[in-house]
Amino acid sequence: MRRAGLGEGPPGNYVASGYSVYEEENEHLQEGLRAKVSALKSLSIDIGTEVKYQNKMLDDMDTDFDSTGGLLGATIGRVKQLSRGSQTKLLCYMLLFCLFVFFVLYWFIKLR
Fold it and tell me: Which GO terms describe its biological process (predicted)?
């Protein structure tokens, strides 16, 4: 009985040692697959690093927004305090200042 793979089959498919052309092709494809897997691995590591960086940036932005909210809350509190009291003089000054800023902006936009 003869063993398969040692010279049988179509000519040119087998080498004298029994090493198949298909095995060579498989090894070549395996090397290509290894290269693709290593590229995917490095890409996933880069994506993970970028996600961590973006999360850190978002946390920093949340802190900035929280401090801005505190500033706005304090300002609104002062405005409420002005509206509750009988400090009509301060309220009048604030209204005049707002009108002045409005007219300056209007004039500036009109000149453009």
Answer: protein transport; vesicle-mediated transport
Residue 81 lies in a domain: yes
pLDDT in tens, 55-89: 787 777 666 666 666 667 777 777 777 667 667 77
Q: Do 18 and 12 contact (CB within 8 A), yes or no?
A: no
pLDDT at residue 40 above 80?
yes
Domain presence at residue 61: yes
- Are 16 and 7 contacting, i.e. CB atoms less than 8 angstroms apart? yes
* Phi, psi at 20, each rounded to 5°: -80, 150
As given in the structure block, the two tokens for residue 40 are 């995917």
> Which parts of the chain fold into alpha helices (H)?
21-84, 88-111
CB 5 within 8 A of CB 14: yes
